Amino acid sequence: MVFRDRPIADRATELHERGFAVEIWDWTTKDLDALAATGARFTSMTGYVRGELVDRDGAEELLRTAAESVGASRRLGRPNLNLHGTGLDPNGLPVRPAEDLTGPDWVAAVDTLRRIADLGAEHDVVFTLENLNTAVDHPGTPFARAADTLALVQAVDSPYLRLNLDLYHAQIGEGNLVELTRRCLPWVGEIQVADVPGRCEPGTGEIHYPAVARALAASGYSGVVGMEAWASGDPDLAVRRFREVFGV
């Protein structure tokens, strides 16, 4: 999402040389060997290609493409493999919208995620379940709120299924970010940040990220914080702003 005028392997090299780790979305569109050759540390990539949590056939497709993603992740050092409440199309819209979830839907989702966690345990790779927002970016996505993803991850209760707690999405959908991070931290595999509105780097919107960073430090969080944000202008300034808030 930064240095977008350059090939993605060049972006990875640039970020690596600046001391950052790297994350990618859809691995099927990338030259994984070229990315691995950059020497960068990769911390997250999309953990499935198709599928969903509730529908039986969709769950089987999710498990099948998650297994493909496990194989792909080995080429990048086994980064976390990220999931959503359902498959998303190229525009970020749910392939199968579902706003009204039933009790059996929740039971089916937990069962599918238990199988995902078992796959992670078998191959020693962590899957993460990301919260999204339905008001701006992903309308109709099931299991979208951080409260939903937390409930599912807690129900599975496996070290191979964690939260990808996205604070940009949470601010739009729920707010109360400091308390949310405290509640979620025992289950977090990664935290992602961007400012609201606009989904640009910290310091460009309404979220007071220095307070969030202090709360994370006070809670003892030492994991990954990823800037899943567009550069509002100069990408050098964007990564500098991010480092000023979350750098160690």
Describe the structure.
It contains 9 helices and 7 strands; from the N terminus they run αβαβαβαβαβααβαβα. It is globular. It has a 7-stranded parallel β-sheet. It is 41% helix and 12% strand. It is an alpha/beta fold and 248 residues long. The two termini are 22 Å apart.
Mean pLDDT: 97
Question: Radius of gyration from the CA trace?
Answer: 17 Å
N-to-C order of helices and strands? HEHEHEHEHEHHEHEH
The unreliable regions are none
- Count of DSSP strands: 7
The termini sit apart by 22 Å
What is the approximate shape?
A: globular
What is the number of helices? 9
Strand order of the largest sheet: 1-2-3-4-5-6-7
Percent of residues in beta strands: 5-15%
The secondary-structure class comes to: alpha/beta
Query: How is the biggest beta sheet arranged?
Result: 7 strands, parallel
Fraction of residues in H or I helices: 40-55%
Key structural traits:
single chain, 248 residues, alpha/beta, seven-stranded parallel β-sheet
Short description:
By secondary structure, the chain is an alpha/beta fold. The chain has helices at residues 8-17, 32-36, 56-73, 103-123, 146-156, 167-173, 177-184, 209-218, 235-246; strands spanning 22-23, 42-46, 80-83, 127-130, 161-166, 188-193, 225-227.
Question: How is the secondary structure organized here?
Answer:
Layout: H1 8-17, E1 22-23, H2 32-36, E2 42-46, H3 56-73, E3 80-83, H4 103-123, E4 127-130, H5 146-156, E5 161-166, H6 167-173, H7 177-184, E6 188-193, H8 209-218, E7 225-227, H9 235-246
Parallel strand pairs: 1-2, 2-3, 3-4, 4-5, 5-6, 6-7
